[in-house]
Structures are given as structure tokens and as C-alpha cells.
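tool_call: predict_structure(chain=1)
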Amino acid sequence: MKKMYKLLPVFIVAIILSSCGTTKNSGLYHEKSVENQGIKTDHYHADMEIDESKKINGNGTATYFIFFKISGDNHFADFDKSSLFPNAVDKVKAAAKYDAIKSSDADFIAKPMYTTTIQSWFFGVVSTVTANVSGYGGVYKNFKQVDPFERDLENAVNKKLVDKLNLNK
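tool_result:
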């Protein structure tokens, strides 16, 4: 029992020291321009229909011990999983977005507004992140395949019409 009392201060100091740390993310990315005329891609366009008569809402929450998630949502919308230690707030916001989209049968949220709350305990070792999102639900309709050459031709014709009718003044 005396050994346990001797280890208790070491454990408390370890917890205090582990709660104080900094993280620096370096965002250096290089894009290489590759010219290949043999690759042709088709472009798809769709109409967006936004229901401005009602707002949709969603909630997300998670509890973390240091950076390990103890509990919380497991479904996310539009979340980048490439990082080894993703930002907890971004992850919970993506969970709130998923909740809003799923509950409303929308494809996306137009004009999303997020409210986030972070509550910490034990010198920041345990924290709960809560996010709420509200916005207008939208759906994609009328998918169509567009040839880039035809799109450029249509843009050129439209530009000529605008110039001819003096609509740009």
C-alpha cells in the first residue's frame, strides 16, 4: 500500500505534463503539372434545388481523453480522413453535418452555420466537443454530361450576345 502512495505523485505529475503540449501542422504540398493529351474526362453538371422555406439542423458530440475518442458519433459527412490525428472540432462538425443531412433527406447544406462548444476537465486531459449546424437543405437534380468543347463554344456564343446587346455596361 505504501508503494502505491509513492507512485501517486508520479502519476499526477505525468498527467499534468501530458496535458501541456503543442502541435504544429506543416501544410506543404506540391502539385506536378503532367501534360497528357491521351486522357479525356467527361464533365457532369447538375441543378441544385434549395428549399429556403425551412432550415435543417444537426448535432454532433464526442468525448476525448487526450486525443483518443472515448465516445461520440461515428458517421461523418465530407470529412478528410487523411490526417493521423484529425482536428476534434472538425470531426464533430462533420458528424453534425451528417446528422442534419440524414434527418432531412438532403444532399447538401446550403449556407451552413456552426456552433461549437468545448468543455475541458482535469487540465484539458478530458474534453467534450459539441457542434450544432443549421442551414437550408438542398438536393441535386437533372444530372447531365457536358462536353468541355461544347461548353466553351456555348460560353463564346453567350459572350458575343452580351457584347452585341451591350448587357455588360
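agent: Residues 45-142 form one domain. Proceeding to next step.
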